[in-house]
Design goal:
Number of strands: 7
Shape: globular
Radius of gyration: 15 Å
CATH topology: Rossmann fold
Oligomer: single chain
Structural class: alpha/beta
Number of domains: 1
Strand order of the largest sheet: 3-4-2-5-6
Distance between the termini: 5 Å
CATH class: Alpha Beta
Largest sheet: 5 strands, parallel
Number of helices: 8
C-alpha cells in the first residue's frame, strides 16, 4: 500500500493520535510526524512552557505554521494537537491537503489516558473531567467534519490501526 496523501489524525487529547499514528506510519511504511513534538522543537521549549510564557493564542499561531509546513512534505501520518482541528484555517488546510481521521474516544478513556502524565496545559486548572467533558462537547461537532471517524477504544492500538488502514484502502488515499 502506498500513501497518496498525508493522513492527519485529529481528536481530543488522550484519544491516541500519537500512539496510533506511530503504529499506522510503521504499518504504511511512511514517516510519522507529531505536530506537538514539531512545535516544541521549533520553539525550543515544551508546550506547557509556551502556554505559560506566551499564552494559548501564541501557541495556536505556532501550531498553524507548523502544520502548514508539515502538510508541504511528502505523504506521511500526522498526529495533530487536540485543538488544532478547531482552528478554522488549520482545519481548512488539513481538509484540502490531507485525509482527516477523527479518533473518537469516550470521556472515561480520555480521562484515564491524560492522567498518566501532567503535560496537558488545559487540564492543569480545575477539574480535569469537567474540562474534558466541556472541550469534547464544544469540539465534537468540529471533529465530526473530519473525512472519517474511527473509535479509539481501550485496548491494543493495532485494532484501530487496522480500521484506519481498511478505511484508507476504501477511500483511495492509498494505492495498492
Amino acid at each position: 500500500m502506498k500513501l497518496n496523501r498525508t493522513v492527519a489524525l485529529v481528536g481530543m487529547m488522550g484519544a491516541g493520535k500519537s500512539s496510533i499514528g506511530r503504529r499506522l506510519a510503521a504499518r504504511l511504511n511512511v514517516a510519522f510526524r507529531d505536530a506537538d513534538a514539531e512545535i516544541e522543537s521549533a520553539a525550543g521549549c515544551t508546550i506547557s512552557e509556551i502556554f505559560d510564557r506566551f499564552g494559548e493564542p501564541a501557541f495556536r499561531d505556532g501550531e498553524r505554521k507548523v502544520i502548514a509546513r508539515l502538510l508541504s512534505e511528502p505523504p506521511h501520518v500526522m498526529a495533530t494537537g487536540g485543538g488544532a482541528f478547531v482552528d478554522p484555517s488549520t482545519r481548512e488546510k488539513l481538509k484540502q491537503l490531507a485525509v482527516t481521521v477523527w479518533l473518537k474516544a469516550p470521556v472515561e478513556l480520555l480521562l484515564a489516558r491524560t492522567q498518566r502524565r501532567d503535560t496537558r496545559p488545559l487540564l492543569r486548572n480545575g477539574d480535569p473531567r469537567e474540562t474534558l467533558e466541556r472541550l469534547l462537547k464544544e469540539r465534537a461537532p468540529i471533529y465530526a467534519e473530519a473525512d472519517f471517524t474511527i473509535d479509539s477504544e481501550d485496548g491494543p492500538h493495532t485494532a484501530a490501526v487496522e480500521r484506519v488502514v481498511h478505511m484508507l484502502g476504501q477511500c483511495g488515499a492509498c494505492a495498492a
